Amino acid sequence: MNVKRAVIGIVAVVAALGADATASACTTFRMERGGDVVVGKSYDWSDGGGLVVANPRGLAKTALVMDPRDEPATWTAKYASVTFNQYGRELPNGGMNEAGLVVEVMWLQETAWELRDERPAVNELQWIQMQLDRFATTAEVVRHAREVRVAPVYGAVHWLVCDAAGACAALEVLDRKLVVTEGAALAAPVLTNDTAAASRAALERAAGGEAATGPGSLARYVRAARRAAAPAKGPLVAAAMATLDDVRTSATQWNIVYEPKRGRVHFRTRAEAAVKTLDLKALARGCDEEAVALDIDAADAGDATARFRPVTRAVNRARIVESLGKLGRQGMIGLADRVAAYPEGMRCEAP
Predict the structure, then answer these.
(1) Domain 3-348 adopts which CATH fold?
(2) DSSP class of residue 203?
(3) Which residues, including other chains, have CB under 8 Å from residue 174's CB and lie 6 or more apart?
(4) pLDDT in tens, 247-263
């Protein structure tokens, strides 16, 4: 089995096992005050393992696609980034680049992907890495979004993209067309597990007095939107963490707060509640240096920047094996070798 099929198999297993119980519980929001900007993410899924990866700039990449009829997208990483990866390098669940662009993914059952056409393709997780590699602003992402087609592996997802200036956009594929919602049409810089249009309608109903309680997608959206519109007094990172507490569900695994202007990331996990902080400026590197990573469940609070270590094939493989083992699919572990080797096929073009 080749690397492409290996990745497809792993992601399909992950999605199939996690979708029913936890797919409808992620929350992402942007909060702003006095020119300061933070982006918060609650990652809610069936497994909490993962790596925090510092991805170098300068690597030339070819997308992993499902069907040999698809032409894989190719690009070179202009920006270094930090991403949260559950099933190996280059398939992130979200992250931020050194320009302050944040991209996060959430489940969206209404997703209906575009039909195959002549455009180059990328899968729904590597799409995140592609945006972080190439762009500095939300406007750039939106401007170039239709140049590639998402060739899905399994997940029915949508994305929230925000930049250091606070501009955000929701990107969704509905009725086989890409729908971009930005500016005033976005209503609030928040996304959960309903479409941007349905979320806007829920916010309007809530303004009329409808309750927004419980763990449901629209209730979480309304609560996060209200908090984003009027952040609590004190440090904005603390206000974002309090919002993540408000939208927490029984499936919450990771809480992440990005500071796009400062290049800092704060996170905690179900297994390790102590908040760890990263300095992306210190972690950013060219492709003539090794990519480095940190176990997302690393202990000890505080600045964890210096604790990153090379993300070798063995480190990558170990993460994949552990994740698959937790999901009860030991028969798939044989694919880990091929998936772990994928980054070695990337070329260093501009250190």
Answers:
(1) Penicillin V Acylase; Chain A (3.60.60)
(2) H
(3) 110, 111, 112, 195
(4) 999 999 999 999 999 99
